Amino acid sequence: MFSNRHRRCAPQAAPCFANSSGECGQIIVSLVMMLALVLLAMAGFAVDLTNLWSHRQSAQTAADAACQAGAMDMAATLAGENLPSMGFTPSTSGNCAANSGAGSICFYASANGYAGTGLTNGPSNAVSWTFPATVAGVTAPPSTVTSYPFLKVSITENVPTHFLFAATGSNLHPVSASCTCGLIEEKEAAPMVVLSPSASGAFTYSGGGTLTIVGGPQRSLQVNSTSATAINCSPSGLINTSAGGPKGTGSDVAVAGGPDTAPTQCWGGGFNGGSTGTWHGPVLPISDPYGTVGPPVSVRSLTPASGTKGVSVTKASSLSAAGQDGCPDIKNNCVEMAPGYYPNGITTNGYQTYIFLPGVYYLGASLNAGGSATLRMATPCKPSCSPLSTQVGQQTDGIMLYFYAGSININGCSGCTNSNLIPVPSTALTCDGSAPSSALNMPSTLNGNVLIAQCTANGTYWDTGGDTSDSRGNPGVRGLLFYQDHADTTQPVFTGSGALSFSGALYFHSSSYSDLLSLDGGSSSGTFVIGEIVADQVSLTGSGAINLALNPTPSVDLTKVAMLQ
Hints:
Helices cover 15% and strands 30% of the residues. The protein has 565 residues and is of the alpha/beta class. It has 3 domains: 26-187, no CATH class; 189-289 and 532-560, no CATH class; 291-522, no CATH class. The protein has a 10-stranded parallel β-sheet with strand order 13-11-8-5-35-32-29-22-19-16. The longest helix is centred in the N-terminal third of the chain and has 56 residues, at 23-78. The relative contact order is 0.12. Residues 1-11 have low confidence and may be disordered.
């Protein structure tokens, strides 16, 4: 039975294959062809989609590069650079087709494969830019920095496709990419900044002129000039940053122009960066750290100070017992100055010691300190009150000298060592009463001229008139000590043989970038600055030297280029 059933069933499976008409085989062939067509279509779609994805990535790369180039031009313009080939005007939208491909945005887009000649009915691309008023999640810099900080670059490309035609009805598929970037402000530890955008010898050191920087950020000196000789030295000049930077093992020098390597014609190579300090160039210029700080206009509205001679306060009784408001002179009474408006400036006289009560001084002419005069800080009501003071002073007290006209001029033997004066402990220069960095080699007590800025929360200044949003620090950082108006082109000068010790920021910037901070003479042995120096140009000659301890704490707003979206 089993074998018969087997013989009857077996022939039933064969007829389709044995059928001479081939109808059964046609079904299978059709099925195979259909599957092949489906697979071919899927492969075609995959090729088109992969191609579109590749073009999308290329467009994004080009948009990123073009946007960053445009933002860097915006930053350079804010730093005073003249960029005639920038190719765009912040606030005015544009595109590369109308712009004939000129300018940084179009150049970098083209270099990445997108000439931006405009969209056509064939393979083509367009590059355009706008200036958004806001960017989600991003705080714009103050309008005093720039009214148009943001830039958006958009790229659209018509990419040829083949199999997508069946789905879209077109053999061209648009691909778009965009990048939003611009300028933001961030709190940073500020380097010493030389602001001139083009001067040759913007920073000059020669004839024994030296700059020694300790502590602070990794980049400790920034020179914005694009001149090939922006930094200029001659034999025996030296920039020493071997104890600079966050770790005190060396910090960097950066120059927008040149030389792009440390000069070799100066003594010791002209640069000592320690084990971690290097010379960078060319680099992007940075913005003025104090460019948004307004002047103390409320002080000028006060009744002008009566004369420029101040009042006489009782001298010290001994080298260990100061006189009224800390008068350090055991031989003569001190001349005490009070904060306020000095339309005729301040001029010292003879061998006297001038002490300055805490606050803001608004000067319409220079502070001239010559002869053998000494400039010091007053300490209100310590050990006793003068006729000008009523409240006991604090460690965070200080002054700001704002020059509406004129500048600081210390010459002759002002600040020379005087055995009749009580020295100032170096701990008085810091906000918390600690000793300054030992790498500065500052003695524990200081002779000569010693001036100290206010301790502030944001590193600028404060006054009762509310001219800034800053406030007294707790303990904070020393703010602006010298602040010269941007319309004032008087040159600040430190010459002679007296010792100079300053705690705070030295800020000399005019709109014409012509303020030259000059240090010349034998004052080199005792010139110490704890804080920042920002000037249009700097010249250290004739043994003039600056020993600068930069603040490592982020305390000033620096404008930077950033990719935002």
